[in-house]
Design brief:
The chain is of the alpha/beta class. It has two domains: 247 residues, 3-Layer(aba) Sandwich (Aspartate Aminotransferase, domain 2); 128 residues, Aspartate Aminotransferase, domain 1 (Alpha-Beta Complex), CATH 3.90.1150.10. The protein has 16 helices and 15 strands. Strands 4-10-9-8-7-5-6 form a seven-stranded mixed sheet, with helices on both faces. The protein has a four-stranded antiparallel sheet with strand order 11-12-15-14. A hairpin with a 2-residue loop joins strand 2 and strand 3. The N and C termini lie close together (12 Å). The structure holds D-serine (DSN).
Length: 427
């Protein structure tokens, strides 16, 4: 029996979501479209099996094929990023970050990360998050122009002596200088964690410098520019020791500490269907055409940024070097929330976002965040970005005009029809 026969309500919701994805412009920079092969693995029987532990050292019997699946994912992650150890079990980016803190810190230790409202992430020490409640959190911000402020990072590090420094962002449009972060960490003997969730795919394609060999631990989600299923990985160098030996919190022991932090630390049975889908996505990322994909994401982002700036948009840092941009809409006389709602009605999905030194509430901030990974997956190029820039301007200018927004939505649909997405799929 199919879902459509057994559960028509669910089938309807899935088909509506499919239509939404097919007929709109998906510009939330953390989203992407996985391949049919990734979807196939994600819907596989891997979900049936419990397999606490790691390949070759499981708590349950019958794990011989799950071991093969997890080893494929681990080996491909190691090859792709050039590390000697990969943990592919974190269920999400939050879990990967929590596990890394659990591995390297004791409750009450000090960590330092980028403030969410300047482009960081809630797990980088936001006071209401686990990372800000169970550890002493020091938050760095950005320069007035929106660039990472390494001078401030250094002076905060010297003042507070964090044991862990987290560098990585969710709304930062420029390249991250990992070496500068390493200098700060080395000055006070701190661990350095790079959260590359947003830029993992760009690291693979060579469009962003890699923190491998510089950061002690690297965390990443698998579903953003890397274009895999929802999930995450923790990458590092070194090798885990035997599971039962007790170890100190030292750099040499990071692989062991990380593995134990995931299980038994914060998770139970791995999601083997998710691991299988990660393995497929990593194989895709190892193919030569993934390099071209990464290059095109950046070319598209630069083209869109240039178009928006020509149309008077005020972009944080004056542009982008990666897959995203943040537009401060103050000069357009509209808030980020109003703009995101209007764009949604026009078939363009973005998210409201704070800008550095945000004067408004994070629930109705001054900016929007836009990115090109999903559009690039559909095959769109610079020419389409120019048109999209024009639609964004028109939707924001006419944000209260339903007819105008509906007109843009219809034009968007004509464009998206030229870039088919999951043409054979239905639920
Ligand atoms: N939710 C992710 C993003 O949109 O950037 C971060 O976790």
């Amino acid at each position: 029996m199919s879902i459509s026969t057994f559960d028509p309500e669910l089938s309807h919701a899935l088909n509506q979501e499919l239509t939404r994805e097919q007929s709109g412009l998906e510009m939330i920079p953390s989203e992407n479209f996985v391949s049919n092969e990734v979807l196939e693995a994600l819907g596989s029987i891997g979900t049936n099996k419990y397999s606490e532990g790691y390949p070759g050292a499981r708590y349950y019997s019958g794990c011989e094929w799950v071991d093969v699946i997890e080893n494929l994912a681990r080996d491909r992650a190691k090859q792709l990023f050039g590390v000697t150890h990969a943990n592919v079990q974190p269920a999400s980016g939050c879990a990967a970050n929590i596990a890394t803190m659990f591995a390297l810190l004791h409750p009450g230790d000090t960590l330092m990360g980028m403030n969410l409202f300047y482009g960081g992430h809630m797990t980088h020490g936001l006071p209401v998050n686990f990372s800000g409640r169970y550890y002493k959190s020091v938050q760095y911000t950005s320069t007035k122009e929106g660039y990472l402020d390494f001078e401030q990072m250094m002076s905060l590090a010297l003042e507070h002596k964090p044991k862990l420094i987290i560098v990585g962002a969710t709304a930062y449009p420029r390249l991250i200088d990992w070496q500068k972060a390493r200098e700060v960490a080395d000055t006070i003997g701190a661990f350095l964690m790079a959260d590359v969730s947003h830029i993992a795919g760009l690291i693979v394609s060579g469009d962003h410098p890699t923190p491998v060999g510089i950061a002690d631990v690297i965390t990443t989600t698998t579903h953003k520019t890397l274009r895999g299923p929802r999930g995450a990985m923790i990458l590092c160098n070194g090798n885990p020791s035997t599971p039962l030996k007790s170890v100190d919190v030292t750099k040499e022991n990071i692989p062991t500490l990380v593995d134990r932090a995931i299980i038994p630390g914060i998770q139970g049975g791995p999601h083997n269907h998710q691991t299988a889908a990660i393995a497929v996505a990593l194989k895709e990322a190892l193919q030569p055409d993934f390099q071209e994909y990464g290059h095109q994401i950046v070319k598209n982002a630069k083209a869109l940024a240039a178009e928006l700036m020509t149309r008077g948009f005020d972009l944080v840092t004056g542009g982008t070097d990666n897959h995203l941009m943040v537009a401060d809409l103050t000069n357009k006389g509209i808030s980020g929330k109003q703009a995101a709602l209007a764009l949604d009605r026009a078939g363009i999905t973005v998210n409201k976002n704070t800008v550095p030194f945000e004067p408004r509430s994070p629930f109705d901030p001054s900016g929007i965040r836009l990115g090109t990974p999903a559009l690039t997956t559909r095959g769109m190029k610079e020419e389409e970005m120019k048109q999209i820039g024009a639609w964004i301007e028109a939707a924001i200018e006419h944000y209260a005009d339903e007819q105008k927004l509906e007109g843009i939505r219809q034009e968007v649909k004509i464009m998206t029809d030229r870039f088919p997405l999951y043409p054979l799929l239905s639920y």
